[in-house]
Amino acid sequence: MSIRFGLLTLLQQQPMYGYQLRQEFESSTGSTWPLNIGQVYTTLSRLERDGMVVVTDEGDESQRVFAISDAGRTSVHDWFATPVQPSAPPRDELAIKLALAVRTPGVDVRSVIQAQRTSTVRTLQEYTRSREAAGEDLSWLLVADSLIFSAEAEIRWLDHCETRLVRAGHAAARATGTERPAHQPVAIEEGAKQ
Domain holding 56: CATH number? Predict the structure, then answer.
């Protein structure tokens, strides 16, 4: 999501100055996407330049109050009506890390997976506690649910990666003849028989 549409959407509620917009944005998203006040004012300047917002007569010289224009309202309407389409597959650092780990000699890929799983489970627990503390704040509940579902999906994916890694290890061992087939009994040494 762009900051541009977040600010425009908030300005549909009422005119605000930059600091108010920053607070409302962070409150609406459960502070999962903290904004630098510089980002807010830079974005507001661009929105003003593009005719999406106007500066009102409210406020004083130290606080410029912004209101959404008709063009801004149309832009927000179009944004809500348009499905989110990633322009390219996202660069997932974890997927890249695991892809490189399997090709790097000396890296214990299962340890990498386990460390990530442990971290993601902790994060999932934090998100769950945050969601429970949110009470009835629907906007934060929606964001928290998204974060929780993403963390759960990552854990499932890590489980899948570990399974795939084990299968690949078994297949490689069979190909080199170092794995004993499951149906073959273990040979007992003569001296060990009773």
Answer: 1.10.10.10
Q: Is 93 exposed, middle or buried (0-12, 13-18, 19+ CB in 10 A)?
A: exposed
- Please indicate, yes or no, whether residues 31 and 67 belong to a single structural domain of this protein: yes
- 24 and 72 in a single domain? The answer is yes
Q: Is 54 helix (H, G, I), strand (E, B) or coil?
A: strand
pLDDT tens-digit series, residues 114-131: 999 999 999 999 999 988
Q: Using CA atoms, how far apart are residues 31 and 26, in angstroms rounded to an integer?
A: 4
Concatenating the DSSP letter of every residue in 105-161 gives: TT--HHHHHHHHHHHHHHHHHHHHHHHHHTTT-HHHHHHHHHHHHHHHHHHHHHHHH
**d(Cα 138, Cα 71) in Å, to the nearest integer?**
28
Total-model pTM = 0.67
Residue 77: which domain range? 3-81
Tell whether 194 is covered by a domain.
Answer: no
Shared domain for 63 and 42, answered yes or no, is: yes
